[in-house]
Amino acid sequence: MALQGLKVLEIAGLAPVPYCGLVLADFGADVVRIDRWPTGGSLSADVLARGKRSLALDLKKPEGVQTLLRLAEKADVLIEPFRPGVMERLGLGPDNGYYAQRAGHDINYIAVAGVLSLLGRRGENPLFPGNLLGDFAGGGMLCALGILLAVIERYKSGKGQVVDAAMVDGASYLSTFIHNHRHTGIWGNARGSNVLDSGAPFYETYRTKDGKYVAVGAIESQFYHNLIKGLELDKDESLPHQFDTAQWPTLKQTFTERFLSRTRDEWTRVFDGLDACVTPVLELPELMQHQHNKDRALLEENEAEGGRWEPRPAPRLSRTPAYSVRAKASPAAGQHTQAVLREYGFESDDIARLLASGAVGEETQSGFHAQTLWRSILFLRNSK
After folding, report:
1. Which family, according to UniProt (predicted)?
2. Domain containing 217: what range?
């Protein structure tokens, strides 16, 4: 496994932190999730916990804090989701930024990053893409990238460092292409009037006769030519030029009416024979019915999670691939408390004392409850 031997402590949180830990665990890192103890009555299932182990810890007790610090001495990475000030009180971590003290969610992060203002249709409210951009792409995934960059650098310097994975920063960085196209015409006009944001009729989704949808991405001339051919509009001499922006509304209306004349699957068969960048908009239950997704084995059935279908880890490495998700169960909170403590050098007497004090615990019910935050920090220890 590519990350075998990398020891990671993940303090339980929402979305970005567990996703970052999931990525690292999928590729071989030993990820121990630090769950809250006692768990109380407000547990919510962590659906991003597969392949991790769990140690339950009460960070409100001095013994719990000392246990975390002792664990961190032997771990390579510590990922945390707290508001600024929490890790400082524990003796770890810098935080800054005007909004650093305030709670937020994905929609808030991408709003402050300027990304939300770019998404949506002309004359309508900005449209947010679930919580993919801030929490997962700009947060968890870039946090994982930061960890790997710091690990690689540590081999040269022998030193650890703080990786500040603020989700506003990450969402902004993901929008570099848009920022750099503000004056090229690709993405310089108002929301919903550019080539890639639903302004162009050849980069759009269209409803079909059966109430389903197709996605059209025929930007380049050769693909646009095949789009027109597939729609049987190639004989229509009155059709506006592809990049006559003043005629885009008219062209979009023409495409709308044409796509409504057949079902999604009928259009799929038409364009499977043409290189026009036209694809069906698949819903989650039908993903594995599509030939491409079958060929790629896009999803795997996780037998340890009741047969739930989950995406395979990506990217796929040829020599050191990620773990299969087929038998990767999510741990119960504190399921591995004693085993992890032993591995990290705690003696039996120490473990018994911590259990008796309530600083650590074990739980049979899976899940946790934690608060989402504006930023995440991880700590990479110095090499020995």
Report:
1. Belongs to the CoA-transferase III family.
2. 203-286
